[in-house]
Design brief:
Layout lengths: L2 E9 L2 E8 L4 E5 L8 H6 L1 H4 L7 H6 L12 H18 L3 H4 L7 E5 L12 H13 L6 E5 L6 H4 L35 H18 L4 E5 L6 H10 L8 E2 L12 H10 L4 E3 L10 H5 L5 E2 L3 H4 L2 H13 L3 E2 L7 H12 L9 E2 L12 E2 L10 E3 L9 E2 L1 H4 L13
Parallel strand pairs: 4-11, 5-6, 6-7, 7-8, 8-9, 9-10
Antiparallel strand pairs: 1-2, 2-3, 4-13, 12-14
Bound molecules: magnesium ion.
The site of magnesium ion has 5 residues, from loops.
Length: 409
């Protein structure tokens, strides 16, 4: 089998990769929805893989791996990797999880990092009210993650939140693309005592709503100073928080900071989590080998693909590090990839971040998903070949721009 073409269409804000072969099989992959600008990057990789056998996934990816980097630049390689697995599974007549070594579990736990409800404000009452709505959401999530601190509107809306300049709220931007120039921008600094206390009050308010029935994880930064981060671990020590994510680095920060994470993790009884922006196993090496964190959360659409994610999960497991993959913007094709790989991960697997699209039309253009997708906080692993879900060309076509109209041709 040979790759005869690589196409990319932007559907919604998600670049979708299609790998076309000489045997009539196509494979699909998806880039995080925040990155419509990456279409050129995907198409630029085409020259390096045309003519290759797509079922030799590792050999094909080795041709393009050097052209990726930390978020957002690992996405194109990652989406192509997923599309290759989709082809390989379809060619073999097997679900991708079989090609990755087979199922460890029949259903995969997911956590809520994307089913969101608008927040009225930034008070502890607002956080409690919002948590109650997420708790009542029909997916029955057993773990809910909420953004606080620098990973929330606090940095925009609370006066004297920190000793630094507050950027304008996202959406206030007047850029040619209409996007906020602060998306992914590292806002950082020392918190004021009032700002710090406010974060802690909001955490206590949310915990009150969830009790010990539903796990609360917190996406905190990046941007905290090490000293404030240590203070936070002390302040929430008795709350049994599932993890504190990305306090120091994360999101679009193009470095890891494993040495500082290690300082933090040494003094914290609450699990410390990072890794969503990190590309390739090599960049997890120090985090894992020095036990710099307790939980890592790579995103299959940023780390370099699902095989890379699996390798890192197993290496983390050898070191007693837990695993909770990121996925909030990965869309429904990304969801399928997360289900396939998560079914195969070792016992350090906690849950992956369920990527719920905000635009409900996505559910009309994709076939093969269970209904409902999430039941009691889990997704049953399906058994169809490849990733096991398909774009429906007749339905998806209306979401293609004029320049992408030949995507399904
Ligand atoms: Mg995060």
């Amino acid at each position: 089998m040979k790759i005869t073409d690589v196409k990319c269409a932007v559907i919604g804000d998600s670049p979708i990769v299609r790998i076309i072969t000489d045997e009539g099989i196509s494979g699909y992959g998806q880039v995080e929805k925040y990155k419509p600008y990456l279409k050129w990057h995907i198409l630029h990789l085409k020259d390096y893989i045309l003519g290759e056998d797509p079922t030799n996934v590792e050999r094909v990816v080795s041709r393009i791996r050097q052209r990726g980097a930390f978020k957002p630049w690992g996405s194109a390689v990652s989406a192509i990797e997923m599309a290759l697995w989709d082809v390989a599974g379809k060619a073999a007549g097997l679900p991708v999880y079989k090609l990755l070594g087979g199922k460890v579990r029949d259903r995969v736990r997911v956590y809520n990092g994307a089913v969101r409800f608008p927040m009225a404000g930034q008070t502890p009452e607002d956080y409690a009210e919002n948590m109650a709505r997420m708790r009542a959401s029909p997916e029955g999530f057993t773990i809910i993650k909420q953004g606080i601190g620098f990973h929330s509107q606090m940095k925009h809306e609370l006066p004297a939140f920190f000793y630094g300049d507050s950027p304008p709220p996202a959406g206030d931007a007047d850029t040619p693309s209409g996007k906020s120039p602060y998306h992914g921008f590292l806002v950082r600094g020392l918190l004021t005592e009032r700002g710090f206390n406010h974060v802690v009050d909001c955490i206590f308010a949310m915990k009150e709503v969830l009790g010990d029935e539903i796990g609360l994880a917190l996406d905190c930064g990046p941007g905290w100073t090490l000293s404030d981060a240590i203070r936070l671990t002390k302040a929430v020590e008795d709350l049994h928080i599932m993890w504190l994510e990305d306090l120091l680095t994360g999101d679009y920060v193009p470095w890891v900071g494993a040495d500082l994470y290690r300082e933090l993790t040494r003094v914290s009884t609450t699990p410390i989590h990072t890794g969503e922006q990190v590309y390739l196993r090599h960049n997890f090496k120090e985090l894992i080998e020095t036990n710099a964190v307790n939980v890592i959360g790579p995103d299959p659409a940023d780390i370099g693909g699902i095989a890379e994610l699996k390798w890192v999960a197993e290496y983390a497991d050898l070191h007693g590090i837990l695993f909770a993959p990121h996925g909030t913007g990965d869309g429904l094709l990304g969801l399928a990839a997360l289900v396939q790989v998560s079914a195969t991960l070792p016992g350090n697997y906690i849950a992956f971040e369920y990527p719920a699209p905000q635009e409900t039309w996505w559910y009309d253009i994709v076939a093969g998903l269970p209904d409902p997708i999430v039941r009691d906080g889990y997704i049953d692993v399906w058994d169809r070949p490849g990733m096991g879900i398909e774009l429906i060309p007749e339905a998806a076509r209306e979401h293609l721009s004029a320049e992408d109209k030949d995507f399904f041709a």
